[in-house]
Amino acid sequence: MRSPFYFIVTPVGGERYVTERNGLIVSVSEEDHKNSNREAIVIELPSNYNGPISIGDKLLVHHNVFKYYNDVKGARRSGKSFLRDGYFYLDETQFYMYNHDGKWVTVKDYCFVKPSLNKDFYLEKGTLYEPLVGVIKYSNSELEKLGVCSGDEICFEPNSEYEFFVDGEVLYRMRTKSIAVKI
User: Fold this and answer.
1) Are both 89 and 25 inside the same structural domain?
2) Local structure of 34: helix, strand or coil
């Protein structure tokens, strides 16, 4: 089974949803996009693909890739990426980062930012993380050309963060243009 245009993948762990983290049940809802599985294993590459991704690599994918939805009659359906028997197809716009030989690498203009914990201040913010502040965990070539590298503390635009769990930690997926200031 090989496609001329698409990566063929399967969800990590064989499950479409991640309902448990660190031994705790986090959700049983299929409507909550935060708990859809966002990690996929590459089963097959597009036939004309010459890039760095290999069979067996892990991809971080869009939250809708593995999700179910209910059609207009209320029947449970698989999304447009479903192929068959636990296999899904992706184009290059549906993933943001890949893990090859144990190293995460971002694609296109995506980067991943570790949110900063709240700092002591006069006002209570009511959140675990400092708003709009983080540290670049996985940069990209575009940011590096601008002098923004992994480990740099940055400020980012409001509503640009898209939360992922990568190797047990919370990271925000962002685009290069969302990085506002290097602190």
Assistant:
1) yes
2) helix
d(CA 15, CA 69): 16
Q: Do residues 12 and 98 share a domain?
A: yes
Residue 121 confidence (pLDDT): 64
On whether residue 73 sits in a domain, the answer given is yes
Dist. CA 117–CA 181, nearest whole Å: 18
Give the C-alpha separation, 100 to 138, whole Å: 14
Q: Is the pTM above the cut of 0.85?
A: yes
Number of domains in the chain: 2
Q: What is the pLDDT of residues 75-111, one digit of tens each?
A: 999 989 999 999 999 999 999 999 999 999 999 999 9
* Domain region containing 83: 7-104
Structure tokens, 142:
């575009």
Read off the pLDDT of each residue in 56-81 and give the average, rounded to a whole number.
Answer: 93
Q: Tell me the helices (H) and strands (E) count for the chain, helix number first.
A: 1, 17
Output the 3-class SS for 133-161: EEEEEECCHHHHHCCCCCCCEEEECCCCC
Domain C-terminal end among 89, 104, 119: 104
Phi-psi region of 14 (alpha: psi -120 to 50; beta: other; left: phi over 0): left
Q: Of the residues 62, 80, 104, which one is the last residue of a structural domain?
A: 104
